[in-house]
Design a protein that fits this description.
- 49% of the residues lie in helices and 9% in strands.
- By secondary structure, the protein is of the alpha/beta class.
- It folds into two domains: 3-48; 68-248, Glycoside hydrolase/deacetylase (TIM Barrel).
- A four-stranded parallel beta sheet has the order 3-2-1-6. Strands 4-5 form a two-stranded parallel sheet.
- Strand 4, helix 7 (170-179) and strand 5 form a beta-alpha-beta unit.
- Helix 3 (79-90) packs parallel to helix 9 (224-238), helix 5 (107-115) packs across helix 6 and helix 6 (136-154) packs across helix 7.
- The longest helix is centred in the first third of the chain and has 21 residues, at 3-23.
- The chain starts with a helix and ends with a helix.
- The mean pLDDT is 94.
- The structure holds zinc ion (ZN).
- Zinc ion binds next to loops.
Length: 252
């Protein structure tokens, strides 16, 4: 049962009570309207921020004192091979949450990820802009087509899923339950597609001490290789082990 289902057990009777009080008891409407508005806001917030865990549980915090590198939106024809070269040279295993359409364009890269010991997860078939507003059936279809594309490319059927934009609406949660996927989120987002310098990205991740344990990056942007190299160097210097995310989460 999701956190929201548990909350509904309390909220629904209160909604009913306030509505009854306003409608039949001639009481004021504002308490009912205010609670309803707050409830709708909570639903929106819970959909946008998977950390809240309102509709589904996303694994997002790994073993303390370690770091797991995860990459979304690939594979990219130029940046992904360069990144794979670096990870291989450094002996680091990471996770790639791939978009099905891009998997179909470069199945060889997904095969290489699996062969080189990386975790490969599904990040939907098309990364729809309106992901948060999809119906349950459409979300199921996006997940399964993405998983099929990865299986055709690599021979491996993944059960890992990261929702586009990290958005976990009630329909997404229902689709995840239907497909039996396990959801991996993140607890550090260094805005690698926004910050311009590697220094800024690094100070966001590490600051005084590391902000979290699971970092989300994108292997679709040019700086990904430099950023990754800098993260690995910093971790080695500080004695922070780099773990594959499923091992860090204790789910391997
Ligand atoms: Zn994405």
């Amino acid at each position: 049962m999701s956190l929201h289902h548990k909350l509904l057990r309390v909220l629904l009777p209160v909604h009913a009570l306030l509505l009854t009080y306003a409608w039949w008891g001639s009481g004021p409407w504002w308490p009912f309207i205010m609670l309803l508005a707050m409830h709708l806001l909570l639903i929106g917030w819970g959909s946008m921020d998977h950390a809240l865990g309102l509709f589904l549980h996303a694994h997002r915090t790994g073993r303390p004192g370690t770091l797991a590198l995860t990459y979304d939106d690939g594979p990219h024809p130029v940046h992904t091979p360069a990144l794979l070269d670096l990870l291989k040279a450094e002996g680091v295993q990471a996770a790639f949450f791939c978009i099905g359409r891009r998997v179909e364009q470069r199945p060889d890269l997904v095969k290489r990820m699996v062969d080189e010991g990386h975790l490969v997860g599904c990040h939907s078939m098309d990364h729809p802009v309106a992901w948060g507003f999809l119906g349950k059936e459409r979300a199921v279809e996006q997940i399964l087509r993405g998983v099929d594309a990865i299986e055709r490319a690599s021979g491996m059927r993944t059960s890992w899923f990261r929702p586009p934009f990290g958005v976990t609406s009630p329909n997404v949660a229902a689709a995840v339950r239907r497909t039996g996927m396990r959801v991996i989120g993140w607890d550090v987002r260094p805005f690698d597609t926004t910050f311009r310098t590697t220094e800024k990205r690094l100070s966001w991740i590490f600051g005084e001490r590391p902000k979290g344990t699971v970092v989300v990056l994108h292997d679709t942007v040019g700086p990904v290789v430099d950023t990754t190299r800098a993260i690995i160097d910093r971790c080695r210097a500080a004695g922070i082990p780099l773990l594959r995310v499923d091992r860090s989460l204790g789910l391997a």
